[in-house]
Amino acid sequence: MFLALKEIKHAKLRYSMITMIIVLIAWLTFILSGLGNGLSTLSAASIKNLDAHYLVYEEGSGSKFSKSLISASLKEKIDAQSEVEDSALFGSAMAAVSKKGIDEKTDIALLGIEPGSFIEPKVIEGKKLDKNIQNGVLANKTLQDKGYAIGDEIKVDSSTIVLKIVGFVENETYNHLPVLFSTVEQWRAYQFAAPGANNGIEDVVNAIAIQAPNLDAENFSEKIGGIETATKSQAINGMPGYMEENGTIVMMLVFLVAISAFVIAVFFYVLTIQKTQQFGVMKAIGAKNSFITKAIVSQVFVISLVGILVGVVLTYLTALVFPEDMPFNLDPTLVVLYGFALLLISVLSSFVCVRQVSKVDPLTALGRVE
Amino acid sequence: MKRLEVRNMTKTYDEGSSTITALNNVSMEVDAGEIVAIIGPSGSGKSTLLSAVGALLQPSSGSVIVNGKKIETLKEKELAKFRLNEIGFILQTSNLIPYLNVLDQLLLVKKMAGKVSSADQQFAKQLLADLGLEKKLKKFPNELSGGERQRVAIARAFMNDSSVILADEPTASLDSKRAFEVVQLISNEVKKRKKAAIMVTHDERMLTYCDRVYRMEDGVLTLQS
């Protein structure tokens, strides 16, 4: 630490430039992770929020809500299984809504749930869903920004349905759209308005969410028949575009981290090579390899730590100026995780230099001027 | 028992098909409080001898004995320790650490051995004061003159209170006035602190400060006076 800090203090410009590189890498990493997190939240927040362990789909639907149609009557059979603690009906549809006084239509996801079931989200303003108010809906808070308020009557496009906002919920998005939660019956009335759209299944729903911590999914599907059972994370991956979006971001992050490992390693390697003579001198006057190694590694550690911390601060500052509707969502756990990953990678990459040090011959110290 | 003995040391290098003898059956002795000079033309083997005595180079045969201990019996790790504790190298002016101030150059030696105590701090300041550098403690090498840098290198060599001082062309790149000063300082410190010192030099004017002078020619060492 002694040598490391003294040297940084002495060559401020050189080390601040290297720190700057690490700052930029860290900054980019954190922003990408924030974007990735934001996008995946936008894509599937409502499914992530479900307090369920498994979801039951129609057999052959590949865990996709849009391809799955099952009868609500299956619920009885499911509830009868000993492993199942509770179950809840679920349906989804895409729609556009409008209200008087607002020119622009708004795209929304209409999710049908049973009032009072465990998948009903927490209301932050207004009232819960009510069986007796058939057209009542809970709207995601972002709709407030578009001019919607409690008590508003909203018209659903391509239908004669008029819904009424009874309450607001937060962080509920589905397929990148803000969610309106309605009763299953109301959802059915919209989604299956055309005769035969329900494949002739009575009391149709897309899926049934179940709470069952110790479920053998395959066995369970066979026992009920005509269904497939997916874990919640499988259900999230089944959301349209979810895997593709996440895959893209993860790939970028992996490349970024791999490239940064190389860049950092090369920088420190060049620095180390420049100091070969100095290390020779130190060895000639009695420095052990471990002494020089400690100096190098601690220097890399300090520089990386400072760079990453500055990167974190910059990321949070940039988050403040990002436009409101940008899908940017910084998860502090992820920030800490990526921060540690970057730190670890830089310290590991400095070991490339350490190998170089052990090769320095102290005889270089006797190099002649004459 | 002499402080430092070199016994029948030979060093050969293979260069292509021919063998070059850098040191040919060299023997010498230096006692505590003595400073000896080795002079000779370039390429005569002076530096090779110094490197071998300083445990930077393994001789082909023969021994270096410091305080009765043969250094060829030491392992790689022990050699670093040996250099740290028993050898004080006075290297050329360019060989200070550029980002350490004068005081830290000396304390670095103690850092290598472990912690720096306040007694070490005092000793370092005392050494630097002996060499007339008491006002330059916080200066960096690039802020010092050539003579001052060389005096720092001398102080550094004495810092670990080693048995042997090895000076490698300490006056190279200094004008004669500074060169005399530097050699005189080395000589004074060697006598005062009872070290065994070897100085390799080109400069025959410096020999008045030395107890004995050896001449090296084509790897053969002969006592001159």
Rg over C-alpha atoms of chain A, rounded to the nearest angstrom: 29 Å
Walk across the major sheet of chain A and give the strand order: 3-4-10-6-8-7
Helix-strand topology string of chain A = HHEEHEEEEHEEEEHEEHEHHHHHH
Biggest sheet features of chain A: 6 strands, mixed, barrel
Could you say how many structural domains of chain B there are in total?
1
Q: How many strand segments of chain A? A: 13
Tell me the structural class of chain B.
alpha/beta
The chain-level mean pLDDT of chain B equals 89
Q: Report, as a whole number of angstroms, the end-to-end distance of chain A.
A: 35 Å
Beta-strand content estimate of chain B: 25-35%
Kindly give the count of domains of chain A: 2
**Rounded Rg of chain B:** 17 Å
State the shape of chain B: globular
- Kindly state the percentage of residues in helix of chain A: 40-55%
Describe the structure.
The complex is a heterodimer of chains A (370) and B (225). By secondary structure, chain A is of the alpha+beta class. Chain A is built from twelve helices and 13 strands. In chain A, 49% of the residues lie in helices and 18% in strands. In chain A, the strands form two sheets. Chain A has a six-stranded mixed barrel with strand order 3-4-10-6-8-7. A two-stranded antiparallel ribbon of chain A has the order 2-11. In chain A, strand 9 and strand 10 form a beta hairpin. In chain A, helix 10 runs antiparallel to helix 12. Chain A is elongated, with a radius of gyration of 29 Å. Chain A starts with a helix and ends in an 11-residue tail after the last helix. Chain B has six helices and ten strands. Chain B has helices at 46-53, 76-86, 102-113, 118-130, 146-159, 176-193, and strands at residues 4-15, 18-30, 34-39, 61-66, 69-70, 87-90, 164-168, 196-200, 212-217, 220-223. In chain B, strand 9 (212-217) and strand 10 form a beta hairpin. The longest helix of chain B has 18 residues, at 176-193. The radius of gyration of chain B is 17 Å and the shape is globular. The two termini of chain B are 22 Å apart. The mean pLDDT of chain B is 89.
